[in-house]
Design brief:
Layout: E1 2-4, E2 8-15, E3 18-26, H1 30-43, E4 49-55, E5 61-64, H2 72-83, E6 88-95, H3 103-117, E7 123-125, E8 128-137, H4 138-151, E9 152-160, E10 163-170, H5 175-178, E11 181-191
Antiparallel strand pairs: 1-7, 2-3, 3-6, 4-5, 4-6, 8-10, 8-11, 9-10
């Protein structure tokens, strides 16, 4: 699965006095998508059109051309689905400049602007992260902390006598690191 490197990105083009602002966002669910579209629409309340496409890991996706005579945002959604680009929302805002651009040129412009935001250099492969909570002897703590630093991070530690309670995440299941813990549990797995 691919997702955006940046949480947000923008673009701008002016064609025949019409101004086009493009935005990309990392999103996690439809509620977040709706909030962002409403926010962008409110920020650009004088714009003629606000079009969008989104694709979520949950399998949900959608697109709207907002009464524009194109199918570009649906094409953009198909592109995201076929390339496995997930948890991404693309929004493009158009301020009409008084000149009709024609359906074909407009369709190509919207698609071009949207696909520019999800070019290969703007994407990264998502990685599975394993979050654990465990108990370890204090004498092993610094050694294990150094081992974890190479493939993950320690979220929190609390020391109590000869033991420490550690919450940590790893980019892979590493049995060597886990073997230092007298007890541990996998709290959750998540994509990031």
């Amino acid at each position: 699965m691919l997702t955006l490197i940046k949480d947000e990105d923008t673009g701008f083009e002016e064609v025949s006095k019409s101004k086009f602002y493009s935005y990309s966002f990392k999103v996690s669910d439809e509620e977040e998508v709706d909030k962002i579209i409403k926010r962008i629409s409110a920020e650009h309340k004088d714009a003629r059109h606000v079009v969008y496409a989104y694709n979520l890991k949950s399998g949900k996706g959608g697109a709207s051309e907002n009464k524009e005579p194109t199918s570009s945002m649906h094409k953009l959604l198909s592109l995201m689905q076929s390339k496995g680009i997930m948890n991404v929302l693309i929004v493009i805002v158009r301020y009409f400049g008084g000149v009709l651009l024609g359906a074909g040129p407009l369709d190509r412009l919207y698609f071009h602007m949207g696909s520019d935001l999800i070019k290969e250099e703007n994407l990264r492969e998502t990685k599975k992260v394993y979050i654990y909570k465990g108990t370890i002897g204090v004498s092993y703590y610094n050694h294990v902390k150094d081992l974890i630093k190479g493939i993950g991070k320690i979220n929190s530690t609390s020391f109590s006598g000869p033991e420490a309670e550690v919450e940590f995440c790893l980019g892979l299941k590493d049995e060597k690191i886990l073997s230092y813990f007298s007890s541990y549990e996998l709290i959750k797995e998540e994509e990031n």
